[in-house]
Amino acid sequence: MRYAGLTDDPETRKQAHGNPSDWWQRSFSAENAARQWEKDMLAKGYKGDTGGKGWRYGYTYSVTSNTRE
After folding, report:
1. What is the pLDDT of residue 59?
2. Could you give the C-alpha distances from 40 to 18, 27, 64, in angstroms and in order?
3. On the chain, which terminus has fewer CB atoms closer than 10 Å, C or N?
4. Secondary structure in 3-state letters for the chain
5. Is 66 exposed, middle or buried (0-12, 13-18, 19+ CB in 10 A)?
């Protein structure tokens, strides 16, 4: 299973998710583009939820027994 989310503090979020080894992130310059990316990722089957705090960085990773959603 894959997880996708948005944050303004990717280092803290990465730690909160258990430091996934396949962490990937990208940056956004506009909130509407970030929110649309998040909706698109969820539509593709990624786990996550919309409306979280922050939007400047989008991230994905694989959920494993060593990581947290």
Report:
1. 97
2. 24, 16, 22
3. N
4. CEEEEEECCHHHHHHHCCCCCCCEEEECCCHHHHHHHHHHHHHCCCECCCCCCCCCEEEEEECCCCCCC
5. exposed
In angstroms, the CA 69 to CA 57 distance is 17
Q: Determine the length of the chain.
A: 69
The number of C-alpha atoms within 13 Å of 20 and in the hemisphere containing its C-beta is 23
Rg (CA), the chain: 11
Specify the pLDDT at position 4.
96
pTM of the predicted structure, to 2 decimals: 0.92
**Average pLDDT of the chain to the nearest whole number:** 93
